[in-house]
Specification:
Largest sheet: 6 strands, antiparallel
CATH class of the largest domain: Alpha Beta
CATH topology of the largest domain: Beta-Lactamase
Number of domains: 2
Structural class: alpha+beta
Protein name: GAF modulated transcriptional regulator, LuxR family
Strand order of the largest sheet: 3-2-1-6-5-4
CATH superfamily of the largest domain: GAF domain
Strand content: 5-15%
Shape: elongated
Keywords: DNA-binding, Transcription, Transcription regulation
Radius of gyration: 20 Å
Helix content: 40-55%
Organism: Corynebacterium epidermidicanis
Pfam families: GAF (PF01590), GerE (PF00196)
CATH architecture of the largest domain: 2-Layer Sandwich
GO biological process, one term: regulation of DNA-templated transcription
Number of strands: 6
Length: 283
Amino acid sequence: MNVIDAQTLKDDEDAIRAALTSLKTATGIPVTMYATVTSEKKLQISAWVGLRTPALQNLIIEAGSGVGGRVLATKRPVGVSDYTRANVISHEYDRAIQDEGLHSIVAVPVIVHRDVVGVLYVGVHSSLRLGDKVIEEVTMTARALEQELAINAAFRRPDGRSTLGAKSGRVMNGAEWEQVRSTHSKLRMLANRVGDEAIRKEIEELCDQMVTPVRMKQTTKLSARELDVLACVALGHTNVEAAEEMGIGAETVKSYLRSVMRKLGAHTRYEAVNAARRIGALP
């Protein structure tokens, strides 16, 4: 594997892991999974959150078979409320599903440049029927993940370096850019703990300077508190963790997050972070 393949793979893995964690937090669904399309045009479950057993970990799925294989073949979402009895899918993988104890499953294709590159799953260990809101959340997360994967591919140069920062004459690699993002989020959290208003504003100005050289000027006005919430979400914090970090209530965090999502036209926390990065509100 060459440098570009290794870096792109890591960037993609980070994006997928963030999507799974965000999706689980947003929906409360206990299991989220991602299956990658292999070079043999099969699926392999490559990332997961909440699985109780190894039965589905790294499972290879044939196109057209089971829920994921049907999604791969049709490029359309598929949901079943009782997997082993569902008549819309084939049942080659019933044993693995039973060993894990999953009942209801929803799977949505992740499509980049018109090709299915993966399948995003959610599932529950009970007969609970997954409603339209859950399906919509999975779909929106898949769409946001598609954008992230496409950006990762577009920002890779033949020598394995990112094109971000090229205008300044200094080209950052993926690890350096991720460090910038992490530092930005931590600085915003630090500003919350500073009692001196002048120093706090100076830190916030430094955060803005980290964003503006490499992103287009922000057109959607977000408040400082809304940016703080987004910075917490970008670090993977839950609402409760963000509330503790910011010294406010969890319901207040939810209120800020709803306002941010409305302003950015986002449907999920993960999509809101991506949208904020696109407009230059976050690095």
